[in-house]
Amino acid sequence: MMDKFGIVDASNLDPNFKYAISNQLGGENIKRCFQCGTCVASCPIWEIDERFNPRKIIRMALLGMREEVLSSDFIWLCSKCYACYERCPQDVKITELMGAIASIAEREGKEGNVVIKSKKPIFDKAFTNSIRKYGRNFEMKTIINGVLATKGIKGLLSYTSDGFTILKKGKLGLRPEKVKEMSQIEGIFKALEEK
Ligand code: SF4
Ligand code: SF4
Questions:
Q1: Which numbered ligand comes closest to the C-alpha of 88?
Q2: How far is it between the farthest Cα atoms of the chain?
Q3: What domains lie within the chain, and their CATH numbers?
Q4: What does the pLDDT read at residue 1?
């Protein structure tokens, strides 16, 4: 835990947190980080919002600040651009590491151990469900499910006029297009679940 002055209470640190991450698919190389900052200098999200700092998140995780990292909004902001992944001199594979930390957060969130404040995982889930069902993103359904889950029916209705404009321009399909190779899509999800 951190107090209002940003001072870390060492008695609340979890020294096993880094091992939990390195045991997660994508998190294997976290302990290689030597805090050079190349990832931060490459990160487009950091350019927009300095609170999103991959080096800092990795440092906090290595220190054992489990609750702060897992409940942080920032782990959901990574755009998966792979700029840091390409440039990291220690091959930390940060893009995948962020995914690994987010997976732990989702699991812990479901168990009630951390509170996830970000709405991003709700949209991620709606997107994943669409891929699983149709093999591609059925945007209309993803948007409706995401907005319903985060803003309720009133929130959804507030987008009615924008929705019609987008539909008129043909930017959204009303029906899903299912790919032919659904067995391959199911195979990918099955392999991921086994990992
Ligand atoms: S670029 Fe790699 S080694 Fe450098 S701070 Fe980022 S993760 Fe750590
Ligand atoms: S992959 Fe994520 S953390 Fe890395 S540079 Fe891109 S947005 Fe930043």
A1: 1
A2: 59
A3: 10-110 (1.10.1060.10), 120-194 (no CATH)
A4: 66
